[in-house]
Fold PPM-type phosphatase domain-containing protein.
Amino acid sequence: MSQHDEQHGAERIGPHEETVVIRRPELKESRGLMTALKDNWRSVSDAVSQRSDQFKSWLSGFRRVEEMAPNTAKKIHDETTQILQPTADVVRARKEVVFPSTEEVKTLEETKRKEQAMKDIAEAAGIIELQESDGISVETFTDSAGYRFKKNPTERENQDYVATTEHGSVIVDGMGGLANGREAAMVIGEEFMTGLKTIKTPDEKKFKAAMQVSGNSAQERMKAFAGKEITGGAMLATKVLETLPNGSKKVGVAWSGDVWAGVITPDGKADKKRETIDHSALNDIYEIRAETNSTKREALIERFAETIANNDNSPNMSFEQKKNASLSLIKNWVSKSEDEVGKLAPKLRMMMTHSINNQEKDLKIDTKVWTLAPGESLITLTDGYTDVLKLPQDIERAIKIAQQNNRPVMQVLTELYLEALNKGGVKEDNIGGTFMTVEIPELSANELEEEQDEWAEKTNPDFRIPTEGAFYDEHTQYGIKLPNTK
């Protein structure tokens, strides 16, 4: 120990015998403190050393776990897989299923509903009512199983009325809505069928008068539906008024609304000169635009505006207010170009200006009398068909298919209707109609022989029908007349 150390006092403590210098005067007092500090230092050092040994042991254990981990993990995987494999398969299968969204579910349900509806109608179309009497045959079809496109089964009802009897045919497109459309169609149908029964002569004026009376009676009965949404129907009635000597038929046609009728020639073509013009805003606009006389034109516009006002059940508006609003609307339509009117056509055609309902004041029933020659047909259709099919193309197409396959025209037409619905973008509705054909009279045996003689004389005077016992073969039945072999 140096002199300095002796003077101040010195002690070495700690694991490395660090030197702590304490001044001599304080050495005595602090010796006890130094001894305690030295002991504590050694205790802390031993503790740290012990912890270090433990840490090394832990590290060694970690290394062993790390070395064993792959084998241990595989063992655990094998054991859990064996236990949980069935559950895992179920979970995996569930994950693979793609559950549709709410919108997809709605679309799927709607598709299935329409498919079933179309299947039902196709089956119903297979049952066409066929009637033959007095030189005519009539195919009658209505979707009698009901309005199949409604989601709620209790709302599925047929709102079209179709009936054919020996007195004539009536078709009605009910428009009353779900609450009373069916009843409205039946009321109108019954009244017009009664009117057809009263017609006993071929007088065209009496036919028109009888149809007007039937319309008035139907409107009186329709008052029972007053207060409900506009209730009524578009109607078309037909009756054979007279049979001419050559077998032709004079047929009376009466209609109100947008139910359609047209004549089909023997070659399966629609005759544009013999078809009904429905009572819609579109045809009224065309009529006004075609009128060149300004006075008559103004009268047509005035009458059209009154018709719309009469059928308008808007609350809190007087008749004059409705009429003035209609006048403004009509003048706007009339002033449009052909292209603009064409774009508005679907909307305007949906706006009926006349029908048989519980609110109309000015009942309009148009009548025509057409002469149908043998082989010609008259087809009548509700707007369920005409709003979906293309006229006359689809009618002519249906007739061609029906003739080639010996099938009912109304059945084929219904199939074309379903085909159009499948393509989408068209309205779903009740369907109903009739197809009446004037039969070609059969020649009697005497008439046939006279016709054959006339034919032979004109073609070859040396040829004549073989007499009894003369040579005869199968060719004679095809009109080839063999010479007398005697």
